[in-house]
Amino acid sequence: METVTVSSKFQITILSTVRESLKISPGDKLRVICYGNHIELVPERPIEEFRGILSGKLTNTNIEREDDRL
Q: Helix, strand, or coil here: 48?
């Protein structure tokens, strides 16, 4: 676990190892989530990046449709 320091302008630097692993680039937006005494930064990604993420995942399910029961 690494430590960063808050500057006098309340800014922090995201470590290069974290930037590289999350593919964060200048201009990217991060969502800030506060809960309890924790701060979480989550990169916002365009919806297009998620296209196909579930392909083939739900093929073996047995879903009963409402109109099939009638």
A: helix
